[in-house]
Amino acid sequence: MSTVKVTKICCIGAGYVGGPTCAVIALRCPHVQVTIVDLNKARIDAWNSPDFKLPIYEPGLEDVVRKARDRNLFFSTDVDKGIQDADLIFVSVNTPTKKSGVGAGFAADLNYVELATRRIAAVATSNKIVVEKSTVPCRTAESMRTILEANSKPNCRFDILSNPEFLAEGTAISDLFKPDRVLIGSLQTLEGKAACSALAEVYANWVPADRILTVGLWSSELSKLAANAMLAQRISSINALSAICEATGANIDEVAHAVGFDSRVGPKFLRASVGFGGSCFQKDILNLVYLSESLHLPEVAEYWKQVVVMNEYQKRRFSKTVVDTLFNTITGKRIAVLGFAFKADTGDTRESPAITLIRDFQSEKALINVYDPQVEHEQIWADLTEASPSTPLASIQKQVSICSSALEACKNAEAVVIATEWKEFRDIDWEQVYKGMNKPAFVFDGRLLVDADKLRKIGFKVNTIGRGERM
Length: 471
Ligand code: UDX
Ligand code: ADP
Prior knowledge:
Strand content: 5-15%
Shape: globular
Number of helices: 19
Number of domains: 2
Radius of gyration: 24 Å
CATH topology of the largest domain: Rossmann fold
Strand order of the largest sheet: 3-2-1-4-5-6-7-8
Bound molecules: uridine-5'-diphosphate-xylopyranose, adenosine-5'-diphosphate
């Protein structure tokens, strides 16, 4: 079986994963034509916008799109043509957690993957390599293959690969330029291995050969869930320890530093926080929980579930600290929440801990000023409405205001809550912030961001996650 030379790639789904990934493939492989298609016209229009107002914020992305767009990178709503023209198709559609039916709240909703797969089968007229890019439960490739084979035209063969994406938001472009590894899973048949080589050759244009790992299809699918579960577990572990630090007077930064110095543990991803967010960690762990339960492994399911339980506890614990510290009531008090994105350098708010904090402050009848340098205002309203479905937006807006700077958000507030580690929050004029606040002025640092001693010298009472020191 000879290896197909990939010259035309189609990516179905122009979101956070498909957009940056395929833009970088186009940049690094000028001889390959890359077309990213999506049903969402507004999204495609934004990718094509003349002034490069792209639909997602990601450092370095605009530069990549400027270099490759209309050269060998195209964005289109013509999904069928994209499929027909391509030798290789990435399926990069959304796989949210199911909201109803069997597995609701845990299992992945594979409806979008299935619809995209059915579309490929319906319109393809030549052989295709179909690549799962979206994070999917183990053995989804088998369902895709069954659908493709049952609906394909004669003389049209499909090879399925799994090629999960490990990029992190905020560093997507550098992650894609220099990935720790590229993982490709295939069936261990001659055809499967040939398809795997074809995709590996695309990445070999810029990724060193020893970083391209080829494994079986099911291992590849499971590795993505496993990597995210283990990363999230590290955060829940350090956050669990942060609670012990606060109770004992230990300092979580020092503990993390000491533990991370052990080369077997390593220093990365040990930063205590108000809790992890993002579109992947919670979703993938719940997926793993569901998978374990389906496989009749209840102890395994329970083990992974604790990672999410701890994360919820951490968010609740933090908002309770705010209420307890402000003399057990925040009713009518103004709280400035700095940051709404789930982490710095992204405008993404999916599962952001800020949403939970603000909802908790709302239920305590506080007044909340929010500021985030990247998140669109409509997104903040949409997230807060979704978090409190029985409260009309007009009522939410009586309690919550969106501000256009950190300084404005902190004006006349009793407390500042740092929910996202945007660098600009470390560097704001804290003297000025202090002058504008009611006294005593409190700062609650949920991201280990600010210099607590410096702020205390100004006059603030500072509470930092994972530090048991006196305010
Ligand atoms: C994650 C994985 O890192 C990535 O490999 C995968 O492809 C997608 O999921 P992402 O969700 O974009 O990426 O961001 P990540 O940097 O992993 O952060 C996730 C959450 O954990 C954020 O809310 C972040 O603030 C939090 N976090 C991260 C901590 O609280 N402490 C840390 O030490 C690291
Ligand atoms: P991710 O973070 O996984 O990239 P997003 O929600 O950002 O997820 O993006 C997924 C994209 O996939 C959305 O823009 C959605 O419109 C698109 N999409 C979903 N189903 C299809 C489909 N059948 N055909 C084309 N695009 C699709």
